[in-house]
């Protein structure tokens, strides 16, 4: 069965935050105080649903996010940062993550952003490379997990 992927509504957000908590806090040991932030309120959130159950999510923030999770001043409109990509254990390796990522890239393109960036967990680097992202910079720790910056030019 194929997941339905769309932008989230306000009614989806509790499930979005619940899935992120399960994947990041419970599954990866990310401190609970780091998982949610003030950027969630203004972000475009994507959801993937299988038979009405949320199995994947991600978000797009207008601007560059530094490795400490803060929006860099002066960057909105110049780059979109994709993050908080999460897929439930049961739905992994079924194309859900790619469908969520593709929707967020499409949304960044619709907003006429010239560039999309993300902070990829090092183990997921090849996933993002297959979607057209290129690594830049050095590997760094974010929430105790190795990450690498990645970016992709958008049509425009």
Name its key features.
alpha+beta; seven-stranded mixed sheet; Aminopeptidase; 7 strands; 156 residues
Total strands: the figure is 7
- Total tally of structural domains: 1
CATH superfamily: Gcn5-related N-acetyltransferase (GNAT)
**What would CATH call the class?**
Alpha Beta
Which term fits the overall shape? globular
Distance, first to last CA: 34 Å
N-to-C order of helices and strands: EHHEEEHEHEE
Round the Cα radius of gyration to an integer and report it.
14 Å
Proportion of residues in extended strands: 25-35%
Strands across the major sheet, in which order? 1-2-3-4-5-7-6
Overall pLDDT score? 94
Q: Label the CATH architecture.
A: 3-Layer(aba) Sandwich
> Count of DSSP helices?
4
What name does the CATH topology carry? Aminopeptidase
Low-confidence stretches: none
| Helix-strand makeup class | alpha+beta
Outline the biggest β-sheet: 7 strands, mixed
Portion of residues in helices? 25-40%
């Amino acid at each position: 069965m194929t997941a339905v992927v769309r932008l989230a509504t306000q009614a989806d957000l509790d499930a979005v935050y619940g899935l992120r908590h399960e994947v990041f806090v419970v599954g990866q040991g990310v401190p609970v105080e780091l998982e949610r932030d003030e950027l969630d309120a203004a972000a475009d959130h994507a959801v993937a649903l299988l038979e009405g159950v949320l199995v994947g999510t991600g978000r797009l923030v207008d601007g560059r996010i530094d490795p400490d999770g803060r929006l860099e001043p002066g960057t909105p409109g110049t780059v979109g940062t994709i993050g908080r990509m999460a897929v439930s254990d049961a739905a992994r390796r079924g194309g859900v993550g790619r469908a969520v990522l593709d929707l967020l890239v499409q949304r960044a393109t619709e907003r006429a952003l010239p560039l999309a960036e993300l902070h990829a967990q090092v183990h997921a680097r090849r996933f993002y490379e297959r979607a057209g992202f290129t690594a830049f910079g050095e590997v760094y720790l974010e929430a105790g997990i190795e990450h690498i910056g990645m970016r992709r030019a958008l049509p425009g």
